[in-house]
Amino acid sequence: MSRILIVEDEPVIRTALRRLLERHGYQVAEAGTVAEAQADHDLPAFDLVIADLRLPGAPGTDIIARCEGVPVLIMTSFGSIQSAVDSMKMGAADYITKPFDHDEMVLVVGRILSQRRLLRQAQALKSDIARDYPVSGMVGHCAAMQEVFARIRKVAPTDAAVLILGESGTGKELVARAVHELSARHDAPIIAVNCAAIPENLIESELFGHEKGAFTGAVAAHRGLVEAADGGTLFLDEIGELPAAAQARLLRVLQEGEIRRVGSAHVRRVNIRLIAATHRNLQQRVAEGLFRSDLYFRLRVMEIELPPLRERGEDLEELAQFLLTKACRRLNRPLMALAPEAVALIRDYAWPGNVRELENALERAVILSDGGQITPELLAIENSPRPALSEEPLSLEEYFRRFVLEHQDALTETELARRLGMSRKTLWERRQRLGIPRTKEHT
Ligand SMILES: Nc1ncnc2c1ncn2[C@@H]1O[C@H](COP(=O)(O)OP(=O)(O)OP(=O)(O)O)[C@@H](O)[C@H]1O
Prior knowledge:
The chain is α/β, with parallel strands linked by helices. Helices cover 44% and strands 13% of the residues. A five-stranded parallel β-sheet has the order 2-1-3-4-5, with helices on both faces. A five-stranded parallel β-sheet has the order 7-8-11-6-12. Strands 9-10 form a two-stranded antiparallel sheet. Residues 3-113 form the Response regulatory domain.
């Protein structure tokens, strides 16, 4: 619902205008002067400000500079063309002469608000393009990816919170953007925030905003990213990293639709859809007391789990070809093909960094390539499968244990030793020391 502030000193006109706008579904606030508007309201939080030009104290146009881009509609007195022109020069979105016709006012307000929506959309689109996210370009035919697509389609039209799970680089942000694109909110912005990338002491004010003087260095009030996503979608990547205080504020946003800036006693209403993602086991973080269980239960209503790349079977080759074409286009190189040995290598490798790692390997190969083919050497990946990386870096022993347990049924002992870069004797000795006996006899 769009929020409009009326700044008008004549109570009769103010009330009439308020009723008119409320009848058309707008949420309306009032002030009698520019000073009052500034003291009592958070101007950038409105979608439109309608101000009378002639007010006690400062003129209505003085509010334009304080609105941080929120459009201002100026009401001028009948016949005063010069003041209308001056208002436009000062940055007003439009002007309307008093006494105004009700239909005309509703029309002008509707037009300014739809222009604002378009502008926000364009800004969101611009940042999308900058990040190069092909929202609808998701490759995936395997059963697990088909299940992912089915869930995206099912959950998108609802307003339910979504939790996306998957190893790093599996496409979690891409899924979040697809959910937003297929939702009723698609013409409002999606604001993507990586919780792990913001220092812990800044995250609350980045997300929820702060008031002037809320902490040292807070020289001006600041609107947080949650408010910026109002009407649209907030995508919190790596939500498992959110500190406890921010978790509590976020819960309030989800439960009550309310937000309180850091250092403020004032509560604002916000309407966001939350999509969260993590590569961590959130349930375990709840058990460890690091993540609030009530927030976890709200988030997990709808889960979408992305399979790691090594479990996507035939998709791997198609995805590699798709990403190769994308890299060639981006780098302005003629289209290239994958040599059969490169395809075999890609299939054999465990891709701990998933799609992003594959994308990077292909991009590097395109840059290095002189011909029209990507050979295994250009991919510069080890041609032995590896266990996936876990959250913590693996110790050598743990690496060894996982590798053996994962591959011992498929490989002979000789092959296993060769891939681990050791002799059969060393493999046997290490098995004994770590207590990983052989499951069956291999030659
Ligand atoms: N199914 C897919 N089809 C095509 N491209 C994909 C697919 N999945 C991921 N990608 C590409 O892989 C890259 C990584 O995807 P994305 O950033 O969505 O992963 P992520 O899981 O959010 O990563 P992280 O956990 O590191 O935040 C992006 O460039 C994305 O376009």
